[in-house]
Amino acid sequence: MDVLPSFCSSRVLILGVGNILFGNDGFGPEVIDHLTRHYVLPDDVDILDVGTGARKVLFTVSLSETRPEEIVIVDAVDWGNEIGSVSEIPVESLPITKVDDFSLHQVPTSNMLRELQDDCSVKVTVIVCDVGEVPQMIEPGLSSEIEAAVSVAAQAIAERYGLKSSSTNSL
Amino acid sequence: MGKTLVIQPVSRIEGHAKVTIQLNDAGDVDDARVNVIELRGFEKFCVGKPVEEMPRITTRICGVCPWSHHLASAKANDAVFGVEPAPAGVKLRRLCNSVAYMEEHILHFYILGGPDFVMGPSAEYPTRNVIGIVGAVPDVAKQVVKVRHLCAKMLEMIAGKSIHPDAAVPGGFSKPLQKEERDALLPMAQECLELAKFSIKFAKENIFPKYLDAVKTVGTITSGFLGTVTTDGALDLYDGKLRMMYSDGSYEDFATPDYADYIGEHVEDWTYLKFPYAKKRGPFMLEDNAPSLYRVNTLARINVADYIPTPLAQKELEEFRKNFGRPAQLTLLYHWARLIELLYNAEMAVQLLNDPEITSREMRVKVTPRAARGVGVVEAPRGTLIHDYTTDDNGLLTHVNLIVATCQNNSAINLSVRQAAKALIKGGKYDQGTLNTVEMAIRAYDPCLSCATHQLDGSIPVKLDIVGPDGKLIDTLTNA
Which of A43, B189, B228, B303 has its CA 20 to 30 A from that of A104? Predict the structure, then answer.
């Protein structure tokens, strides 16, 4: 029996990261939910809502002999850009000096992502949405700007990684 | 001139914490505090929701130990609905608990805490990490990886998924275990058992002797201990009564719904995280050997249990007690106790899979909403976890109280860090190895701080700020 968790052997692994209990911090999981409901995955692409458990999955991948060719991290950040703006950050573009203040929620920091890319030959792509400040107290639910951004990010991911729309009314 | 050292955040523990070390004019340590942000607003969020949603909601609190919250919540639901869950359902829950424990304990020993021992606390950050372990002990790492994969796969097979589980339901378990699944799982559990046996042997021969001095000196404090035992005093990580053992070895046992009679919660103005204390021995004091001070987690459980009901782990417990007594107090012995528990859980998993009832189709009983209070307690890998719910006639929540494991070690973590810092930093002299050793005192408790904060950034390297009395930054050290 193959004991590898299935996500280790997918070609592309897309992880939605964040805590749905804290407002717009739930951007990443909501993107995964949107992809699940509205798209059909190719056989070699896996998507996972890892919530606040991204580290476990990434540890498992980093220690595995079989790894995805590419890991895509989908997460919320507060970088002071326009709220709801979605952008892609190749991990190698993060300057070393950014290691300490890189505020990717619930992700095991840029240095672990760098290790995955540099030492484990996994291409790491980071897709972030600027969500502004996330609430300090539990308050689930996305704002309207971030809900709109979920569709934008999902569509971009679908186009790049070959996900097909499961319904003509899906978007 | 006094200085303040700030270690923020502590690397490689699950979550986010800040350590502040206050030096006096002589450069010695005056005080040290570990500051954690607490999860706030959870009760307000839950009130009005159907209680049966809680086992699913609570897995979102913490992605590190979702199974513990899931099971504590399911047990609180059983109590609210006033049912005894179906025996097969209980066995499936116990099996998931044991497998999740193995995954956690392996992660902590080899990956989170392990690099301190395998690489040494003075190793440079780039090698004192996961990849460093693989390079230092490749054969061991290969087996560790395989068993972690096995654990994740086992949870997928038993419960449908390992992240955000939803298989435990009020009255039992929602997914039956097929006989062919059991047959496939058994050799997997046996392989986990082999790694557990190897791990404790490997650590006793190659790791612990090398660091015995550190074990005897780093973060040592004297305290009481809290953990769960069966009616006859055996170690149990899923169910039983609570035992509060004091530092002199005397103890009181109590039923889980009575926890508030024995555990008080103190508030300090410099942190949101409360300080639970043994209120029968109160008042609260943040002092070593305070009568009301207690700890939870692996060492606590190993201390409070009269015996372990599986043969190999029991043999290890006897050797442990011969070496360190009961209750054992040395903080770094949490690692040793963790390996005994790893062995226990592996034995339990094999035992449960050999039990014919585990494949019974009768895995849940029917439940009906009612107004009631229900308390669910499990031993999370990091310590005793309490879920306390009250519902109205329609089964909607009117009150929720959670006491998470790391919170129960709040006093102990603070005291251990203070002790370690005082012992290691003299005359204003410190280096990276010193700071890493201070961190070791925290990591021994395996704290899960993501229960307390939504911003998890656990592997940022240690950052040390040296701040003068005027608040001006004098120097910054980092191992980035």
Answer: A43
Report pLDDT for B210: 76
Whether pLDDT at B322 is above 50: yes
The verdict on a CB contact (< 8 Å) between A51 and B64 is no
Using a pLDDT cut of 90, give the percent of chain B over it.
52
Pick the CATH number of B84-218+330-357 from 3.40.50.150, 3.30.830.10, 3.30.2310.20, 1.10.645.10: 1.10.645.10
Report the 10 Å Cβ neighbour count for A76.
Answer: 30
A:140-159 residues touching chain B, CB 8 A cutoff: 140
Q: Is residue B216 helix, strand or coil?
A: helix
The full DSSP string for B33-48 is EEE-PPP-SHHHHHTT
Task: Please list the residues that pair with B6 across neighbouring strands.
Answer: B20, B465
Q: Is A36 on the interface with B (CB under 8 A)?
A: no
Contacts of A1 (CB under 8 A, 6+ apart): B184
User: Which one-letter DSSP state was computed for residue B183?
Assistant: H
Between positions 312 and 351 of B, the ones with CB within 8 A of A are none
Place of tokens 């300490």: A100
Q: Is A135 helix (H, G, I), strand (E, B) or coil?
A: coil
Does the beta carbon of B415 lie under 8 angstroms from any beta carbon of chain A?
no
Closest CB to A60: pick one of B62, B152, B480: B152
φ/ψ region of B240 (left if φ > 0, alpha if ψ in -120 to 50, else beta) reads left
What CATH architecture applies to the domain A6-165? 3-Layer(aba) Sandwich (3.40)
Of A21, A60, A137, the CB nearest to B60: A21
User: Residue B469: is its pLDDT beyond 60?
Assistant: no
Give residue B310's Cα distance to chain centre.
21
CB contact under 8 A, A55 and B145: no
Q: Does B456 touch chain A (CB under 8 A)?
A: yes
